Amino acid sequence: MRQNYKLFAGSAAIPMEPILELGEFSSVEELALGKPYKGTAAKGRIRLNKLVSGTLKGAPALEDGKPVVAKLVKRSGSELVFSFVSAGETEAQLIDKAFQQKTAIELREGDFASVIGRVFCVEKAGISRGFLLDGTGAAIVETQELEEGAFVEAGGEVKAGSPPIIAAQSVRPTEVGETDAKVSEYLERNSKPLSFNPLVGDAVMKALSPKIAECARFLKRRLLEFQPVMLRYHGDADGVCSAILVVSALKKFLSSRGISTEENRFLLTTTQTDSAIYSQRDLAMDVEKAALLPKKPVMVFLDHSANQESFEQVKTLRESGHEVVIVDHHPPSPGIAGAVTHFVSPFLAGGSAHHTAGLLCFDLANAIAGGADERLAQVSMQGDKSIFAKPEPLKEPRVIDYLAAYNDPESPEFYAAVLSDPKKVDYYFEEANNRVKRALAASKPFVKQKNVGAALLVTVKLDKFCKKGEYPPKGSVLNEIHREASEASGGAATVSIGTGGDSITFRANHAAFEAGFKASQLILLLKQEFPYAVVSGGGHDVAASMRVREEFLQSVLDRTLQLTEEALAKAPPKTEEKHAESEIKAEEAQAKMDVEDAV
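Now predict its structure.
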């Protein structure tokens, strides 16, 4: 016996049930009372197959051989009695009688309605949930069998949901016809980026605006097509603010189209990472998570993954069929732009790391949904000491770093909730400051200074007083030590090098940069000289880090110090010339580490 199609029996408040059709050699024993069966009319009776027939009650005059549907209402010995339901009607006609055809945007809880559309995604967890678009909006179809890409008419009772849910009592294929054109037009119209004015109106951001707009269009369209987005962000002030901006914008956009990410959690997932490097371990974790989703997700990286150390992992993602979006301000790998679907970087337009990821994501968020929070962009720029940051000091960058060290939250909403509460910001800022002060006091026995001509070299054994997994991290402590030494030097070229575990970390001021010290180039040279010792490394010219196999650490450190002293020996005598504040910021602290937090 097989289910032939679905029948609407009675009024619109009575659910539909399957019409059953006996096989050629099925017997009377297979029949069940109360079930509808398909057969043919035969002189006031219904014939189900060559062996089984019964009396047909309540039927109009029917020609012999006419298709008929009837319910088995009585069984008396071998005699069967059926109650007439319908005759000669197609499945489509039965559905038309059962349900009022509506568009997705017209569906209301309690309706008995049908919708024609295209299935874009099928989530199979128990009962299947098909996510359908019809040209006006979205609906979820709950049923046993649906295929992605199918064009169907689904009818049933409408339940509350975002989008509304059809508890399907009928699902039948439909012609592609005009439905495809309507759906395509809906996607095109609703994925258009909003117009926006760059927060920083320099030539770099103006040149990047078209790329940002196309990135917004892409993300909006993929989410409307119910393609999941897996988003990774760097767990520092810049990365966290980037994530808050983009995630908030995507949720706001989906909500405006009647789609809830709370009810459909597979659509948008986030992961915080403690480094700007996308590691092999990160790749393995993402592949495992992606396998659990109903569709292959788009991978989005914020303040993360543009560097050379991430290239092979990102390339593997792309080759495995994932679409990849990177919005990052770190110096990029030469091949990264061609390896991903969308790449937004200031280096594409002659910019620098001062155009932070948070600045880029502010414009991106406005292109997605509008109304982005400018303060988050300011926090991001101040956290990375961008020349575009406002001079007034903010508490939030240190608060974010503190929270990232201790809470390791998986959700940008966690940070957003804290940052929106001034009392919490004040509390965490005070706690973070106290911890930094204690760390600086503990560092004194492990800090050495050496004059190299007119320059100053500072070395710090960070692992003697910094504990992994606690605040402040080694990079933050080295920032403070370097700042104090640089200010005390009266303008002399100053480089600070911190060691701890398997890492070597660099900070340099503007005078050292002018003298020729460039940490990123130094790391590249060390990678060439010690290819089996230097595991990874990179960053900016004045703030960078590298990881070294511990058995080679001393050899690499000795060579590092030698090359640093050679660079500093070229530094001219210090002068009383005062650099403008913006110039100091521009060079001194691209004071953000790409890699250090990872170690």
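The chain has four domains: 2-92, 99-182, 203-420, 433-598.
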